[in-house]
């Protein structure tokens, strides 16, 4: 599960940058506001503890905000990966861009992508290169319609892509970005920065961060702030050993406000499985808290403190699948 996030982040960033270097309608969902839904901490109760833990686990494991980069599981920002692929493909061989660095390119079925690039060397990616894509009712025949802006900037670059040992930093700014699929429109506003470091094999480290990213779906908006996720992968182990440390604040109407999140013990997983060890602490109003404990790659335990006195008022055991299914 965690490794899937790691692999798809690499694919999205490399696809966007290397391909770009040559290597329905918008619906009724309002543009989400990255300033949040009010900033009040949510009180954790026995009634909302399981849903709260599910929402948090979705972000921590990549099925929430950053699962959007996968193009497979897209509960928060559907279509981002597809939009990257569309933009990258249109940048890969555009004769008019060679002369002007900008063009309006037709999408396959309907709509356009307005492309504007600022690069130091058109033959290879360079730190500081900027790729700006503006989608207007872009329908590539894949079942989605994309609108809004996406600006990708290379923030760090080192090593050798051909050897597979490199450092790549990409900043992705989403502005009034919306994707409609199956009659449902989801949107995003904010900037996500990703750094991928594969220079010391068999280890790979990915850091994902954002000061504020707002997402919306079916008229409901969520905001993640002050997020850092560090994913470490050791391919000398079989299956690959994966470790995740994270901290963030999430503001969601589903849980009635904000909660503060941090890994008190790094999540560890084997290959594509759920974490088999690790702890996430979730803090709400009045020092109420949930400690989410991975018991193994199937089961998870929630220890719940509703009155903030440091003693647990209840314990609940469930499965990772059941917990994540609560978030829809």
Number of distinct helices: 5
User: How much of the sequence is in beta strands?
Assistant: over 45%
Tell me, rounded to a whole number, the average pLDDT: 79
Shape, please?
Answer: globular
How many strands in all?
Answer: 14
Describe the largest sheet: 14 strands, antiparallel
Helix content: 10-25%
Structural class: alpha+beta
How many individual domains? 1
Distance between the termini: 17 Å
What Rg, in angstroms, do the CA atoms define?
Answer: 20 Å
Task: Describe this structure in a few short sentences.
With 328 residues, this protein is α+β, with helices and mostly antiparallel strands.
Descriptive account of the structure:
Strands 1-2-3-4-5-6-7-8-9-10-11-12-13-14 form a 14-stranded antiparallel beta sheet. It contains 5 helices and 14 strands. Strand 4 (144-160) and strand 5 (165-181) form a beta hairpin. It starts with a helix and ends with a helix. It is globular and about 60 Å long. The longest helix has 19 residues, at 2-20. The chain has one domain (2-325). Residues 1-12, 14-30, 64-81 and 93-100 have low confidence and may be disordered. It is α+β, with helices and mostly antiparallel strands. It has helices at 2-20, 49-61, 80-92, 95-100, 320-325, and strands at residues 102-106, 110-118, 130-139, 144-160, 165-181, 184-200, 203-217, 220-234, 241-252, 257-270, 277-283, 289-294, 299-305, 314-319.
